[in-house]
Design brief:
This protein is of the alpha/beta class. The chain has eight helices and eight strands. Bound molecules: NADP nicotinamide-adenine-dinucleotide phosphate. NADP nicotinamide-adenine-dinucleotide phosphate (NAP) binds next to helix 1.
C-alpha cells in the first residue's frame, strides 16, 4: 500500500463526515458515500469535510484500498461483499439493540460483531477500531505524536498487515494505538467493555484491555 492510500467512508450521518474530515486533514484522499445519490451529501461534506469527495457507494469502494464502515449495523446487509474483496474494511460499527433493533445475525453471545462482519466478508481483511470513540471526540481529541496525554485507540484484526496499516493511519490522524492480534481480542473494544467511550492514554488503555 502506498504512503497515502485512497480511503472510502461508507456513511454520511453523524460519524462519516467527521471521519472523512480527520482522514482528509491527515493527508489522505477520501471518498464518502451514503446509500444513494452523492448529490444528497455534497453540501454537508463541503461544510464538514472539505476536500472529501461525494461518491456512489460502489465507486467509492472501487477506488479505495481501505473502506471505513460508518453505517448502522442494521444496514450492513445491504453491502455487496464482492465489491469489498481484497480491501481492508475498517469496522467502526457497534451492535446496539436499542437503535438497531435485535439483529438476529449479530445477537451472538460468543462472537464479537466484527467477527460476524468478517465472516460475511470473506474476501476482505476486517479491522475493528474507532467504534469506541464518540464522533465528536474523534475530531477534538486528536494530538500530534508525542503529545502528553495523547489518547489511545484499539486496533484489532486477524490480518497483522491490515492492522498495521490502519494503526499507521490513525497515528497520522492524531492517536496512539494499541494493536490487538485478532478480531476476537477486539471484543474488548465493544460496548460494555472497560475502554468503550473511555479517554485513556496508551498505558492506561493497555492496562484496561488486559485486566
Ligand atoms: N455516533 C457515534 O458517536 C459513533 C461512534 C463510533 C462508531 N459509531 C458507529 O457508526 C455507525 C454509524 O453511526 P451514525 O451515528 O453515524 O449513524 P447515522 O447518523 O444514522 O448515519 C448513518 C449513515 O449511514 C448511511 N448508510 C446506510 N446504509 C448505507 C449503505 N448501504 N451504504 C452506504 N451508506 C449507508 C446513511 O445514508 P442514507 O441517509 O442514505 O441512508 C447515513 O448517512 C454505527 O454503526 C455506530 O455504531 C458511531
Amino acid at each position: 500500500m502506498n504512503a497515502s492510500p485512497h480511503l472510502a467512508v461508507l456513511g454520511a450521518g453523524h460519524t462519516g463526515p467527521v471521519l472523512a474530515k480527520v482522514l482528509t486533514e491527515a493527508g489522505y484522499p477520501v471518498s464518502v458515500a451514503a446509500s444513494g445519490d452523492p448529490e444528497r451529501i455534497a453540501l454537508i461534506l463541503s461544510f464538514l469535510a472539505p476536500g472529501a469527495k461525494p461518491r456512489w457507494a460502489a465507486d467509492a469502494v472501487a477506488e479505495a484500498e481501505a473502506v471505513f464502515l460508518a453505517l448502522p449495523l442494521h444496514r450492513f446487509a445491504e453491502l455487496d461483499p464482492a465489491g469489498l474483496t481484497g480491501k481492508i474494511v475498517v469496522d467502526t460499527m457497534n451492535y446496539w439493540p436499542p437503535t438497531d433493533g435485535v439483529q438476529v445475525a449479530f445477537d451472538d453471545p460468543v462472537r464479537g460483531s466484527s467477527e460476524i462482519v468478517q465472516a460475511a466478508l470473506p474476501g476482505a481483511r476486517v479491522v475493528k477500531t474507532l467504534n469506541h470513540i464518540g464522533y465528536h471526540e474523534l475530531d477534538d481529541s486528536r494530538r500530534p505524536s508525542g503529545s502528553p496525554g495523547r489518547r489511545a485507540l484499539g486496533v484489532a484484526g486477524d490480518d497483522a498487515g491490515a492492522v498495521a496499516t490502519i494503526a499507521a493511519i490513525l497515528d497520522r490522524v492524531g492517536y496512539d494505538t494499541l494493536t490487538l492480534p485478532s478480531l476476537a481480542a477486539g471484543r474488548a473494544l465493544q460496548p460494555g467493555g472497560a475502554v468503550f467511550g473511555a479517554d485513556l492514554t496508551l498505558d492506561r488503555f493497555s492496562q484496561e484491555v488486559s485486566s
